[in-house]
Amino acid sequence: MVKSEAASRVGGSGGGQPPKKKTVSLKNRIRSLERRSRRDGASAPSAEDSAEIARLRAEISGREKKIKDKDVYMKYRGVRFFERRRLMRYSKLCTRAGDAEGSAWVR
């Protein structure tokens, strides 16, 4: 095994690319802000920290709502597809029946 091959396998800098930075999750950012405010000895977080915490919590709830909406969409996607096909068949049937009778229905 060559040294550069071993380094690239374990994630070293043998590949010539810098390692990717980890993105910190929103929950961890909230937790660190709360810990920092407790560590400073203040009974309540500062105005900037509390505003940041509120913004992060709103972002988390928005993401959770988006995930739930997507789940509902995926759950009923097939149902809507088959309902649409059923209605299209019924529409064709009615149109053919109307044409055959020579009725004055305008669609």
Describe the protein's architecture and organization.
The chain has 107 residues and is mainly α. It is built from three helices and no strands. The protein has helices at residues 3-9, 26-39, 47-101. Helix 2 packs antiparallel against helix 3 (47-101).
SSE layout and pairings?
Layout: H1 3-9, H2 26-39, H3 47-101
Helix pairs in contact: 2-3
Short synopsis of the structure:
The protein has helices spanning 3-9, 26-39, 47-101.
Structural descriptors:
mainly alpha, single chain
Care to count the β-strands? Answer: 0
Q: What spatial form do the alpha-carbon principal axes imply?
A: elongated
Q: Which sheet architecture does the biggest sheet show?
A: none
What is the radius of gyration computed over CA atoms, rounded to a whole number of angstroms?
Answer: 30 Å
Distance between the first and last residues' Cα: 76 Å
Q: Mean of the pLDDT scores?
A: 81
